[in-house]
Structures are given as C-alpha cells and as structure tokens.
Write a structure and sequence with these properties.
The chain has 292 residues and is α/β, with parallel strands linked by helices. The protein has 7 helices and 12 strands. Helices cover 24% and strands 28% of the residues. It starts with 15 loop residues before the first strand and ends with a strand.
C-alpha cells in the first residue's frame, strides 16, 4: 500500500517500511537507537554505470535471424531493465554523514555491517575506527565467489569485504547458535558427529552470487544473495527486531528479515529499486514516497 504524505516516517509497531528518496534526510528523521542491526551496501564508486540487461528470445516466422528447435526461426531481443550511476566526485563527502547516522541509529547492543569492495574499504576502515572507536571493530568478513569474467593481467578480483562494527564492544548481540553451519573442508579430521553438524563459518564466506538465470534473481543489478543476508541477520539480531538497510536496492535485506521474523526499514532513491521491492516483498509493506 502507498503511504499518505505527511504521516510520520517511524511507527515503532507499524508495518514493514520501504522508503523512496535520498536516504540521508530519512535517516535523520529516525530516532536514536532504533535498530539492533544496520546493513549498508552503498554504491562501490566503480566510476561506471551499473546495469542489468535481459535477453528474450521470440519466435519470428518471417524475420527471424537464428534457427532454433525443429528449425523454428527466432530473434534475440535485448533490453535494459535497471541501471544506476556508480560514480561520485567526492565519495566520502557522500558516505561519511550516512555512516554517522548509522552509528546514531544503532541500539546500544547493535551492529553495523558495511559492504564494500577493494576500491574503498580501506578508507572506510580508517573512518569507522574514528567514528566508532578502534575497540568497536569486530570483524572483516571476506565474501568470496567464483563467477564472471577473469582478467589475465592480474589476480582476478572475486570477493567483497564486509566491515563489522559494534556500538559497545562489551555488550553487543551475537547469536552463533542461530547461524547456518558449513561443511568441514577436512571432515575426516573431526569426530563424525561434528562433521555431520558442520562448523560455524569463519570470517571468509564462500557463497555464490545470485545466478543471472536463477529463481532468486529479482531483476536489479548488484543484487546480493539471500544466504549472505540471512547469515548476517540471524547472527546480529533477535526475532522481532527492526533491521535497517539504507541502500536497499533489490530488497534482499527485507526478504531475509521477513524469513527470520524480523521487521525492516528499507530506503532507496532509485524508483526502479522501489518497483523491484514492491514486487518482491508484496503485501503488508508500507511504501512511502513523500519527503520525511
């Protein structure tokens, strides 16, 4: 459903919320300490436009240029589905105030996950050390995958980095028992019962990207896998908690939060992202398009 302009952005016991617009003023409208978990997956500042294209084949008995099954002629039609610019003249002037708001919005036992790649993550570590305090750094998670083009001029880049910071290093929430287990790489070196149960993941996560042709694909570039967000949400929030994603994109955070019994606030300024989330998350989500 669509929210009416002028109604309050934040309803502590209201429906899950998707907000369209620049996330900074909307973040500033939210109350202190409202979220046990904040996940931020900002544009990576790659300097190029991100886009996802679809390829559709259609039967064309007259003008078909390719031959398919049983000699049926067809054409291949390519169209642009979604895109956004991923280039900022001053990336940190853009990101720093949003990280400051993330710190303010975290509950005292809350956790921030900042998802970047090798271009900016080292600068982010220095900034977050200053903002949170170095003692609040919890983990550097390496999400490794094996898909896509490979250069032969250097080591191919096949990982993202997720920096994890807590509001209080002595009192943060982390539930290792709720996290999915992984198979042991050498199961013969552990007792059979441990091998059967699997092991707690380390800070290196081997997880495939979303398949371009898989059922999970929602039609948005840079969509993150449900498995990665499930793990984050299960570990660092409780059932019933509110989870915030201020660069929501395809809405994976909301989908994972819903599966795990959490509530969510998702923000994105791209109208195409809002439409993807509206379709993906369906009924029961309040979609707000007015200014905060």
């Amino acid at each position: 459903m669509l929210d009416r302009p002028g109604t309050p952005l934040w309803a502590p016991f209201g429906p899950d919320l998707v907000v369209e617009g620049d996330n900074l003023p909307h973040l500033r409208a939210l109350p202190d300490g409202a979220f046990r978990l904040v996940y931020l997956d900002p544009p990576f500042n790659t300097g190029r436009q991100q886009a996802r294209r679809t390829t559709v084949t259609r039967h064309d008995p007259i003008g078909g240029t390719r031959m398919g099954f049983h000699g049926r002629p067809y054409d291949v039609v390519k169209g642009l589905v979604t895109r956004y610019d991923d280039a900022f003249p001053d990336y940190w002037a853009f990101l720093e105030p949003r990280l400051e708001e993330a710190w303010r919005l975290l509950a005292d036992d809350g956790t921030l996950y900042l998802h970047l790649d090798q271009r900016e993550v080292h600068y982010a570590k220095v900034l977050l050390d200053a903002l949170f305090g170095r003692e609040c750094f919890l983990n550097e998670i390496v999400w490794a995958y094996d898909y896509g083009a490979r250069t032969t001029r250097r080591w191919p880049a096949k990982h993202d980095t997720i920096l994890v910071y807590v509001k209080d290093p002595e009192g943060y929430w982390f539930d290792s028992a709720a996290v999915d287990r992984e198979p042991y790489m050498a199961p013969g070196l552990v007792p059979p019962e441990k091998a059967a149960a699997g092991k707690l993941p380390t800070d290196v996560w081997w997880h495939t990207i979303v398949s371009p042709t898989g059922q999970e694909k929602a039609g948005y570039p840079t969509q993150k896998p449900l498995g990665v967000l499930r793990r984050i949400i299960a570990a660092s929030s409780r059932p019933g908690d509110w989870v915030l994603d201020a660069f929501a994109g395809s809405g994976t955070t909301g989908a994972a939060a819903r599966e795990l019994g959490r509530r969510f606030v998702l923000i994105d300024e791209n109208p195409q992202a809002i439409e993807v989330m509206r379709s993906r998350l369906g009924a029961g989500v309040l979609v707000r398009t007015a200014d905060p």
